[in-house]
């Protein structure tokens, strides 16, 4: 479960739901980029106006297959459109009032991140919002080591063994490339978002809301 490895995951989902409610407009689109098995889409479905169309995109067909199964067994307010998309190849969006992107940008190669953000910004309506959750690195190496150590302590408390922690770290090396908080904030402002603010922070994890 994601909650075993992401601190306050359920609370982040709840906060994303609350903020999405504030910005979702009837008869617009809501996109979940990196939707995985549709956990966020199903959470949002319970609180968002049923006239809002839900679109989930992910680059892993296996994840979308699981997402489809979960949606079929859930009592949803609306159909959900799931698409296989490689974000490195581009992303088309339109009429979006809300875009969610939880723990996804960090897996996009840095060279392509600005382009992806510009496509998201272009697809958002005025007053629309992006809800971004990311793992972070710190400019100060001492803080970075501290935060990582406390994060691994969190994983141990949730039942991960030292071998599992080590294997996961090796698997993500050069695949998950986190930015500093300042880099993420600057990127969002550079592509045009007029208001950018942190809504959640735990050591090396944060949630950011950006409004067009």
Automatic annotation (TrEMBL):
Keyword list, A-Z: Methyltransferase, S-adenosyl-L-methionine, Transferase
Binding locations of S-adenosyl-L-methionine: 9, 34-36, 58-59
Swiss-Prot/TrEMBL GO biological process terms: methylation; tRNA wobble uridine modification
Pfam families per record: Methyltransf_25
Enzyme Commission number(s) from the entry: 2.1.1.-
Methyltransferase domain segment(s): 32-128
InterPro entries named among the record's database cross-references: CmoA, Methyltransf_25, SAM-dependent_MTases_sf
Molecular function via GO: methyltransferase activity
Protein name: tRNA (Cmo5U34)-methyltransferase
Naturally occurring in which organism (per UniProt): Rhizobium favelukesii
Taxonomic placement: Bacteria, Pseudomonadati, Pseudomonadota, Alphaproteobacteria, Hyphomicrobiales
């Amino acid at each position: 479960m994601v909650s075993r490895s992401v601190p306050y995951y359920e609370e982040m989902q709840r906060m994303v739901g609350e903020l999405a409610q504030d910005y979702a407009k009837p008869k617009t689109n809501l996109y979940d980029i990196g939707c995985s098995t549709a956990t966020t889409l199903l959470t949002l479905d319970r609180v968002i106006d049923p006239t809002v169309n839900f679109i989930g995109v992910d680059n892993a067909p296996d994840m979308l297959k699981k997402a489809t199964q979960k949606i079929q067994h859930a009592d949803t307010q609306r159909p959900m459109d799931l698409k296989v998309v490689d974000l490195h190849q581009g992303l088309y969006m339109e009429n979006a009032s809300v875009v969610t992107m939880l723990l996804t940008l960090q897996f996009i190669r840095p060279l392509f991140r600005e382009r992806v953000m510009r496509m998201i910004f272009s697809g958002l309506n005025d007053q629309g919002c992006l809800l971004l959750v990311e793992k972070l690195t710190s400019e100060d190496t001492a803080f970075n080591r501290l935060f990582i150590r406390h994060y691994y302590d969190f994983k141990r408390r949730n039942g991960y063994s030292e071998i599992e922690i080590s294997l996961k770290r090796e698997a993500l090396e050069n695949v998950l490339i986190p930015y500093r908080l300042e880099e993420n904030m600057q990127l969002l402002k550079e592509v045009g978002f007029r208001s950018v603010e942190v809504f959640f922070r735990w050591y090396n994890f944060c949630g950011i809301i950006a409004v067009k």
